[in-house]
Each structure stands twice: as structure tokens, then as C-alpha cells.
């Protein structure tokens, strides 16, 4: 059963709410749950990616459902141009750009991600060699543009969502691309996780819990680390002060400085280059390191040497 109080715990019901409505099972459950609980101040956004031959039918389905529920629907059509990390990342960036366009101050866009999605993301990042930060899963609530992106179903499982849809006889769309195993996430969802759960029942929910534990531990560590190294976590840092510290602390000071500035985290290779250029060598006016994020979801970074300090800025 999906508890309404848990569903709305992270929402501000006095502010405008949008549901990112694809017509799939997760966003359909979200749409109907808000409607049946008389949340009046919400609208839906459907993004037609124009990638499937069924895209126009999916749009029509969403229009008919929202008309029946008397929910205002905004339809956006986009053309995806894959760059860097490929189609999935390009589509995600395009969606988030649209979300930012709609959100005014403190308004909210709701996504239908659930605990199985957290498990998939955990495994995907694990296999790609992410750091500890990357294993803390999907954020329940985070800033997007002037408003917030919220995942109210994050504590509920896929089975709970499908059961809700079945009990209430709610029709939804099955996107055939979710079964294309060429995509890493689909391979994890359709091949790896079923194999794991065949051996360890409810493994997805346990992985999601572990991801939550990591998130809590990361938050505690960052809080204490910021207190200890507050004077160094900034955009201009004296090199001689950094050289007094162990490398592991230098890396985390840089990482938290990037995070505070809204800069994309560099790869391990770039971090090693930064350490070599500014810490293990004698930097000069021409010393610099730059990096970008392949999907352009965050600004890249640039570090140069000025006045005996490393200076961090967005690229």
C-alpha cells in the first residue's frame, strides 16, 4: 500500500506542483495518487521525445487521461541530439532543461522514481567505477532551476506501484525501449537484477537501503569535514597550506570546493593531474587544468595558479 503521508512528506502542498507524466506505470501512479487525494495545485508535463514510432500515441494517451481527470497538461516536443555519454544522457539533459523552464521560485516537479530505480543506479555507478559519493543513490529532493525536483515514490517498490495500478484498473504505457539490452541500465534492470533476486529475494530493496546508509554517512562526513577544513574549502586556496596535508584530505577539499561552486566532479585521472600539477610540482603562471562533464549536465571546471594560490572557476 502506498501511504499518502509518506508520499507527500517532502512536498510543499502550498506551492505549485508539476508531475513529469510519460504515461508509464510510475508517473501514472503518481498522477492518480495526487488526483485521488485531492491535491488541487498540480499540473502535468508530457515530453514527447520523438524517438519511438509510438510517441504520438503515447502523447494522445496522456492527453486523454489528463482530460478525464481534469488535470492541466503541458506538452513539449524535443529533438534529441546525442553527445558525449549518448542518447540517454542527452534526453535527460533536455528534460531537465524543460523542467527548469517551468519552475518558478520553490515550485516542484515530481518524478516517478522508486526503490528499484535506486538499486539500478547503485549498480550502474558501481560497475562504472564511481566514488563513494556516487553510491548514495538518487536524491529525494534537489534544486532544479528556481524550484525543486522531488521523487515522492523513492521509498516504494516497483511491485507496490504495479499493485496499486492493478487494484485501481489504471491503464498505462509500456515503452518498448525499456527492454533494449544495449543500454546499460536496461541490461541491469532486465538481466542482472532478476538473476540476483532469483538467489536473494528482495535484493533491490536491500541495495536501496544500503544506498541510503551511504547517503547518511556521506552527509555526516561532509558536515564534519567542512567544520575541520572550512578555511580551505573555497575557490582560492593557498598551495602551501594544501601541501601540509595528506593527499586524501587534499582531494576531498578540492571535491567539496567543486561541489560548493556547482562544478562537475572531475574524473580520477583529472584529480591525479591536478595533484601532480599543483601539489607535487612547483606551479607557475602557466599551470592550469580544465575538465568538462560529457553530458553537460553541470558546468566544467578550470584551475589555474595565481598569487601562490590555486584558483577554481567554472569553465
What is the CATH third-level topology name of the largest domain?
Rossmann fold
The shape is elongated
Q: What is the number of strand segments?
A: 10
Strand order of the largest sheet: 3-2-1-4-6-5
GO biological process, one term: tRNA modification
Keywords: ATP-binding, Cytoplasm, Ligase, Nucleotide-binding, tRNA processing
GO molecular function: ATP binding; tRNA(Ile)-lysidine synthase activity
Domain tRNA(Ile)-lysidine/2-thiocytidine synthase N-terminal: 16-190
Give an overview in words:
The longest helix is centred in the C-terminal third of the chain and has 26 residues. Helix 2 packs across helix 6, helix 5 packs across helix 7 and helix 5 packs across helix 8. It is built from eleven helices and ten strands. The protein folds into two domains: 202 residues, Rossmann fold; 86 residues. With 315 residues, the protein is of the alpha/beta class. A hairpin with a 2-residue loop joins strand 9 and strand 10. A six-stranded mixed β-sheet has the order 3-2-1-4-6-5, sandwiched between helices. A four-stranded antiparallel β-sheet has the order 7-10-9-8. It is elongated. The relative contact order is 0.11. The termini are far apart. Belongs to the tRNA(Ile)-lysidine synthase family. This is tRNA(Ile)-lysidine synthase. Keywords: ATP-binding, Cytoplasm, Ligase, Nucleotide-binding, tRNA processing. It catalyses: cytidine(34) in tRNA(Ile2) + L-lysine + ATP = lysidine(34) in tRNA(Ile2) + AMP + diphosphate + H(+). Its EC number is 6.3.4.19.
Amino acid at each position: 500500500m502506498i501511504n499518502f503521508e509518506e508520499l507527500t512528506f517532502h512536498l510543499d502542498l502550498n506551492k505549485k506542483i508539476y508531475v513529469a507524466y510519460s504515461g508509464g506505470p510510475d508517473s501514472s501512479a503518481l498522477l492518480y495518487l495526487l488526483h485521488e487525494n485531492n491535491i488541487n495545485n498540480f499540473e502535468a508535463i508530457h515530453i514527447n521525445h520523438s524517438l519511438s514510432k509510438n510517441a504520438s500515441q503515447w502523447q494522445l494517451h496522456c492527453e486523454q487521461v489528463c482530460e478525464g481527470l481534469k488535470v492541466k497538461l503541458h506538452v513539449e516536443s524535443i529533438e534529441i541530439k546525442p553527445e558525449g555519454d549518448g542518447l540517454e544522457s542527452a534526453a535527460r539533459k533536455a528534460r531537465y532543461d524543460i523542467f527548469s523552464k517551468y519552475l518558478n521560485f520553490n515550485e516542484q516537479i515530481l518524478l516517478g522514481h522508486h526503490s528499484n530505480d535506486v538499486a539500478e543506479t547503485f549498480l550502474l555507478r558501481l560497475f562504472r567505477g564511481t566514488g563513494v559519493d556516487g553510491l548514495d543513490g538518487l536524491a529525494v529532493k534537489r534544486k532544479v532551476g528556481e524550484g525543486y525536483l522531488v521523487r515522492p515514490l523513492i521509498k516504494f517498490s516497483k511491485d507496490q506501484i504495479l499493485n496499486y495500478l492493478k487494484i485501481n484498473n489504471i491503464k498505462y504505457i509500456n515503452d518498448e525501449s525499456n527492454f533494449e539490452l544495449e543500454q546499460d541500465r536496461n541490461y541491469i534492470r532486465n538481466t542482472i537484477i532478476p538473476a540476483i533476486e532469483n538467489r536473494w529475494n528482495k535484493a533491490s530493496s536491500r541495495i536501496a537501503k544500503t544506498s541510503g546508509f551511504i547517503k547518511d554517512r556521506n552527509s555526516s562526513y561532509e558536515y564534519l569535514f567542512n567544520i575541520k577544513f572550512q578555511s580551505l574549502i573555497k575557490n582560492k586556496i593557498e598551495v602551501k597550506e594544501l601541501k601540509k596535508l595528506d593527499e586524501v584530505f587534499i582531494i576531498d577539499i578540492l571535491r567539496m570546493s567543486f561541489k560548493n561552486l556547482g562544478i562537475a566532479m572531475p574524473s580520477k585521472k583529472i584529480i591525479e593531474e591536478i595533484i601532480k600539477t599543483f601539489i607535487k610540482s612547483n606551479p607557475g603562471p602557466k599551470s592550469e587544468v580544465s575538465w568538462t562533464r560529457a553530458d553537460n549536465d553541470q558546468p566544467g571546471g578550470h584551475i589555474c595558479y595565481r598569487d601562490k594560490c590555486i584558483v577554481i572557476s567554472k569553465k
